[in-house]
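quick one, 342 residues, struct below
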Amino acid sequence: STTDRRASLEAIASGEARIIVGTHALIQEGVRFAELGLVVIDEQHRFGVKQRMALYERDDGRPDVLVMSATPIPRSLAMALYGDLDLSILDEMPPGRTPVVTALRSPSQRDSIYGFVREQVAEGRQAYVVYPLVEESEKVDLLSATQEHRRLDETVFPDARVGLLHGQLPAKEKDDVMRAFAAGDVDILVATTVVEVGIDVSNASVMIIEHAERFGLSQLHQLRGRVGRGAAESHCILVADPGEDALERLKIFRDTLDGFEIARADLRIRGQGDLFGSQQHGKDPVLRFADLMEDEDLLAIAQRDARALVTSDPELARPEHAQIREHLVARYRHRLEMYGVG
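---
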């Protein structure tokens, strides 16, 4: 409510609230911190560069920053590889989790996929079926969650309890559906990417992603993470009719569960973006010959030498460093404000 929001803002501004948990709303104007010392950004890939910068660049000083992501965006991974972000990797699955079996299937194989889902439901398991759209669109020939929920409920799985979840539902209806699925009162949840984060149902063992070629690698990894949270073997089934580029992406995703490897592949395919701007992926406008992924050994040497240089001469004021300084000023003077935003 408005009253609760006002009370929260006052507690944040006065310093009474020492730990603040929030959404993008913390970035809005009007939010004042008494003494912001640390910013932790979870699901980093869901924030834009300028949004993250709004938290970093405060009137009351620049806080320490920790960004977390199962699949770092290309720009952030590039900064880590360049040595401009310290990197920690959690490479072990949480206790009790089982590896997810991932398969790539064509639309013509839907009947066999549905048969597999029936078997899982008969064994007491639950399943997700995810679509890229909420409603049908005249502009793109894609299946939608609303349309397919009706068909799956009435025709394909008439004996199962089929729920529908998407971002356009009223908040209470969304909560009711999620609680019903978590309680086991819904067998099959038809949804959009609203299930990408925040849902933890250990009994769910199947994730079907329709039109998988329409999703990015980070989204696919997040969606797959909704299953495999219990002891039973879980499956992620990608239903797609991809072109050559998308097929490469989907095969990479199918063949690894390692989010860091997926992020590296994403960086290689999409490019690192602009480290001095807000573009989070795309071909690097600066590197003309070097390749960030292929030249890691050379990059490590460059990092070592660069650190030694700025340690001995932070302002590059010595005569022998004049050319380096002139080059940096000429090329990057007006682009440095976004550098360092992970």
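The chain has a mean pLDDT of 83.
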